[in-house]
Design brief:
The structure holds two protein chains of two kinds. Chain A is mainly α. Chain A has 13 helices and two strands, in the order αββαααααααααααα. Classes of the chains: A mainly alpha, B mainly alpha. The interface between A and B is large, with 106 and 120 residues.
């Protein structure tokens, strides 16, 4: 690496780094520090901040509404992550298996990468609408009463399905790259041993793809916690009866409907810890598995 | 964290020696059938949206109603003009272009300093930039909102662009790519006495065309699809972006003042720019993703 270091002017390197560092400090580090600070204050519009120590944290510790929101987010993330990985993995496997039309199949399943969550939410709102939806008739014919504006578990399923749909594209992009890297000899050996179809996917491909899959589990978890705000906001607004009130939506309401900046900042700090732990786990584990190559 | 750096180096080496293998084996006919079915599921919601956007009203209660109507021109005109999607899309485009160009310039600078300059505490500087991955908008939007008020930026394009300009992801991808440029080329440049500016313009950038296009698409899709932050910080309709414009439509249609065909026209419009860019530039996009995976 040192052979690449062909310049050594401190002033030049400082100037080159300045914009990134400046924006990082002013708009990323400083607000985060402020959030940490505000989490120890009672803060709202039109009043002076009042230091309250750990009161906001104790409030969250005893707030059963927040606890259910936390549990709900974990459950939501689990459903989204498992759903996305399962669907994407199978899709990738099928695309990997065919010889003709691979390119076309690929683009027709990875396009949701570009899908704006707000668009995905509105389209789902329309096709699954309890009275107008195209899918409502066929689903009700199966004996399910579609009523997710009032039925919590159904609302959860609708939001989760929309969130899964949007994330398929991103996952297939990474999975197809990993699967194409698996040596042909392995596939041939598996075929000779009579391992075919889905069994080859599960017992030969998946173990080799572990590093990629693990990377995707973490990315998808972060997505489920943070990237699904638009789905909740446009489909259910957290309802009915908080059935879809995941942490990010709860935080938004605390800040911009109730204007409790102190408690909201405390909730931001909790979310920061969530991302931090997830990222840390990712770094540790991908490092451990890295000898599989990539 | 140092492990991460070592790991990133190893991965860069692995990428360079990477050989994609072609798979050739006979697919069972059922594979295509399954693929067709799954592709249909992934594409179905958007096909419905596009079809409905051409109809007079948005009433589609059965699959049989899914035939294109003749109101396309009228609906799109109404969405663009009467419901101001022309304006919203323009704002979204301005925001996305400023973010893409800004991030590109600033990140090329930073990555160049990190790879080609002798800097004290280089790993720490790089970590300082990477650590911002832990600080997504949800963690800091409350203090950021207050900061925007203090700066007088609320409701302006500055608020929805400047905080995004520093990009750990982009710096990371560019750094990985720069590390894969053969040292012989770098050394030749040094022997020829090429200055930093000429090195960047005539060596680095020409050798990075694919990656620059790839990260531009990633950043454009990311910027265009932002929802939460513009929702918070932009409150005049004239400055609003398309994603939040959709939220305004959602309010009207739920209130019964608007037909679903118009909402689907707005959704289709909002989907088109990122989708088209992704389809056109899918090759550099996919190649860039293979660098991003750590």
């Amino acid at each position: 690496m040192s052979t690449r270091e062909i310049f050594d002017s401190r002033i030049e390197s400082g100037l080159l780094l300045l914009p990134t560092l400046l924006v990082s400090i002013v708009f990323l580090y400083y607000p985060t520090a402020l959030a940490v600070r505000t989490s120890f204050f009672d803060s709202s519009f039109g009043q002076a901040d009042e230091f309250v120590g750990l009161k906001n944290y104790l409030t969250l510790l005893t707030d059963s509404g927040y606890h259910s929101s936390l549990l709900l987010s974990v459950l939501f993330a689990a459903v989204v992550v498992i759903g996305v990985i399962a669907v994407s993995l199978y899709l990738t496997f099928l695309i990997h298996e065919v010889d003709t039309g691979q390119g076309l199949y690929l683009i027709s399943v990875i396009w949701p990468y570009a899908l704006p969550p707000a668009v995905g939410a509105l389209v789902f709102l329309f096709i699954a609408h309890p009275t107008l939806g195209v899918l409502t008739g066929p689903i009700e014919a199966l004996g399910v009463d579609v009523d997710w504006f009032n039925n919590g578990p159904q609302a959860f399923v609708v939001v989760a399905l929309a969130a899964i749909w949007k994330q398929i594209g991103y996952n297939v992009i990474f999975m197809i790259a990993a699967m194409n890297n698996i040596p042909d000899t392995l596939t041939e050996t598996a075929a000779l041993d009579g391992v075919s179809g889905v069994r080859r996917l599960v017992s030969v491909y998946v173990p080799i793809m572990t590093p990629t899959l693990f990377f995707l589990v973490i990315i998808n978890t972060i997505y489920a916690f943070f990237g699904t705000f638009a789905f909740v906001d446009l489909l259910t607004s957290g309802g009915p009866s908080n059935a879809t009130n995941i942490l990010i939506f709860d935080l938004y309401r605390e800040g911009f409907s109730f204007f409790n900046f102190g408690v909201a900042s405390t909730k931001s700090v909790v979310l920061f810890l969530v991302v931090g732990v997830l990222m840390l786990v990712q770094f540790r584990v991908t490092d451990k598995y890295s000898y599989y190559g990539g | 964290m140092v492990q991460l750096l070592q790991y990133a180096k190893r991965q860069a080496n692995a990428l360079r020696s990477d050989q994609t293998t072609e798979t050739t084996h006979d697919a069972r006919p059922g594979t295509h059938l399954q693929l067709w079915f799954l592709v249909l599921l992934v594409v179905f919601p958007i096909v419905v949206a596009v079809i409905v956007s051409t109809k007079e009203t948005g009433v589609v209660t059965s699959l049989g109603d899914l035939l294109p109507g003749s109101y396309a021109v009228e609906n799109y005109r109404e969405a663009l003009v009467d419901y101001r999607f022309g304006r919203f899309m323009w704002n979204s485009l301005a925001m996305s272009l400023v973010i893409v160009v800004g991030k590109l310039i600033v990140s090329v600078f930073a990555a160049m300093a990190i790879v080609y300059y002798r800097i004290p505490y280089k790993d720490l500087v790089f970590l300082f930039i990477l650590f911002t991955l832990l600080l997504p908008v949800p963690v800091r939007f409350i203090p950021l909102f207050q900061l925007m008020n203090d700066l007088g930026w609320s409701n302006t394009i500055l608020a929805i662009t400047v905080p995004y300009i520093a990009s750990a992801t982009t710096v990371f991808i560019l750094r990985q790519h720069f590390l894969s440029i053969p040292t012989s080329i770098v050394e030749t440049a040094k022997i020829d006495g090429v200055g930093p500016l000429r090195f960047m313009l005539f060596v680095l950038l020409p050798m990075s065309k694919g990656v620059l296009v790839g990260v531009s698409i990633i950043m454009f899709v990311y910027a265009w699809n932002q929802y939460l932050w513009p929702l918070i910080v932009i409150d005049s309709e004239a400055n609003q972006v398309a994603q939040v414009g959709l939220q305004l439509l959602q309010g009207d249609v739920q209130g019964g003042q608007l037909s679903w065909s118009l909402v689907m026209a707005g959704s289709t419009l909002t989907l088109l720019p990122p989708l088209l860019l992704m389809i056109v530039f899918r090759k550099p996009l996919l190649e860039t993703f293979s660098i991003q995976q750590k």
